[in-house]
Write a structure and sequence with these properties.
globular, four-stranded antiparallel β-sheet, Rossmann fold, alpha/beta, binds calcium ion, Arc Repressor Mutant, subunit A, five-stranded parallel β-sheet
């Protein structure tokens, strides 16, 4: 059974999410402040974190930053529409996805499931993709460059795998978001851009002159033929 930590200061929202998650078979932990949420995360190490942005005690972005210093656990952010600039910062800090309030609990459950599926792949066929200096191990969810392990979030891993599996093929942002989320939703373009930016920072020797992930202007991205 997967454990989900909800860090959110609106009791009604916590109640609804908890009830839906528990009905879906998840174990649920809750925290109503950023600082206590971080400490709960540290002690319990849940499988996924649902994180509100505006929190008493410690800002959600700071919580995300602290968690990412130690872990690649999937983080789903809850944001208000007015928080749009913060959503992008959140994604840059390594959050995997976000939903905008007000949202349907069913949507949150769907996103949680998608994130967990990516984080805990079942038993895929053993496969290792070698492109340039990169080695992408699909079974271990591990990427190495010249023998050095590169830590990727599940979303970054899925994006990299999608692109690298077909070098030279241009993918639209919409196609890329579908591979990572399984569904189209508003704001996907900047979401993809934020993830690609993170990915480049991690895998490219010089992120300003990417040799792996190329921008296809007006379209999206492609993995360069090595
Ligand atoms: Ca709040």
């Amino acid at each position: 059974m997967s454990t989900i930590l909800i860090i959110e200061d609106e009791p009604e929202l916590v109640k609804v999410l908890r009830s839906y998650l528990e009905k879906s078979g998840f174990e649920v932990l809750t925290a109503y402040r950023g600082d206590s949420g971080l400490s709960t995360w540290d002690h319990k190490r849940p499988d996924l974190v649902i994180l509100d942005l505006n929190l008493p005690g410690m800002d959600g972005l700071d919580v995300a930053r602290e968690i990412r210093r130690k872990s690649q656990v999937p983080i789903l952010m809850l944001t208000a529409r007015v928080d749009e600039p913060d959503q992008l910062i959140g994604l840059e800090l390594g959050a995997d996805d976000y939903v905008t309030k007000p949202f349907s609990p069913r949507l949150v459950i769907a996103r949680v499931r998608a994130l967990l599926r990516r984080a805990q792949p079942g038993t895929p066929a053993p496969e290792i993709l070698r492109v340039g200096d990169l080695q992408i191990d699909l079974q271990a969810y591990l990427v190495t460059r010249e023998g050095q392990t590169i830590e990727l979030t599940p979303t970054e891993f899925t994006l990299l795998h999608t692109l690298a599996a077909q070098p030279g093929r241009a993918f639209t942002r919409e196609q890329l978001i579908e591979t990572t989320q399984g569904t189209y939703y508003e704001g996907y373009e900047r979401t993809v851009d934020a993830h690609i930016k993170n990915l480049r920072a991690k895998i490219e020797p010089d992120p300003k002159k990417p040799k792996y992930i190329e921008t296809v202007f007006g379209v999206g991205y492609r993995f360069a033929k090595q």
